[in-house]
Amino acid sequence: MGVLADLLTGTTETPQPSIPVQDGRALTTVIEGAHDASDYEAILRACDHDPSRVRFGAPPSVYVRWKADGTRVSTYRYKLEPVTEDFSSALVERCRQELLNGWVTPQKQGLTLPFTYVMLIADPQLGKVGTQKAVANYKRGVLAHIQVAKDLIALGRSPEAVHVAWMGDEGEGVCNNYTNQSHIIELNQTQQLELDFELRVWALKEIAKLGLRMSASSVISNHGEWTRNGTKDPVTSRNDNASTFVARQAKRLFDEAEEFGGPHIEWTIGDDDPGVVVELSGERCYFSHGYIEKGRGTSTELKTKNAIEKQILGDIGLASIRLWFMAHYHHFYSLEFEGRTLFGCPALEATEGSKEYMKDQFGVWSPPGMLGMLVGAGFSERGWSSANVF
Fold it and tell me: Where do runs of H (alpha helix) occur along 118-241?
């Protein structure tokens, strides 16, 4: 299924090893006897490597000599790189076939209540140091929130829907977000996009098993700006963004699968604005990565609050929104003001990934986790209830 799928299918308790990225050292292997020097797959197997997982980074160099008895001895010197599936064909086709294998829709009992279970997937920054831990955090969060939804169904208090909000920085990117970025990433740009895609498809497949109405949203993010050229600004536009690109590919896949019995998913994908507004069980919610909304204040929370107040002044249509969800600052917080609640999402990346950039520099950091809660206009006082971080 490919090296990225290996990451995806590992258990959350014991994450599977990440893809075998070499540290720059050349490897040397000796092969005795006659063989086809042009058959690289056979040579890889003879060198005790799996051709489905790795390939030669460049044609290997070979030194040939003969023993006194006439036996050919070939010494190969080479470097390896991981094998990844082509995003536009093999990967998408495999995910499509898996989606068409059938859907299990459980029979719900009891009441269906007018609220939506919201899962907020923020800042896994796949490809950064600790990618396999980020994948484990991602999967653990999704599965834990699914279990809460199952418990509610079992109690006869089923939510009417589930909403999955991708809050940005799903991939780390490869350059121009910080100086040494290209020297410490674990996955290249293609591998990050593929892993992001696989995880989104996996999450939606797992959530679909609940048999509830589904919706999803995705917003642009700073690490998603893949056309930066040595500056902090993109060459094209902020909306030419990896975060929303992968969301559109996932939407396309599920739209096609719906014709064959797959779940119907209502999508809201960011385009011209930093955030998106989605109505969930009668409650209008604002989702944004939070890197564009810049205000004044003595903390990241107060700066974001001030930015929201400025946005409302500039767009009166936002004034009726009570729930605002942001990410970017890698820590969980909630702040009530003027009849509204602002939630900051914790990051899903590995603990060691954000220490230098968030904890040491800004002092804003919390353990990895995924925020989720019930949302609906029926919660008349605040519009939300039962928030959890897993």
Answer: 131-154, 181-184, 189-208
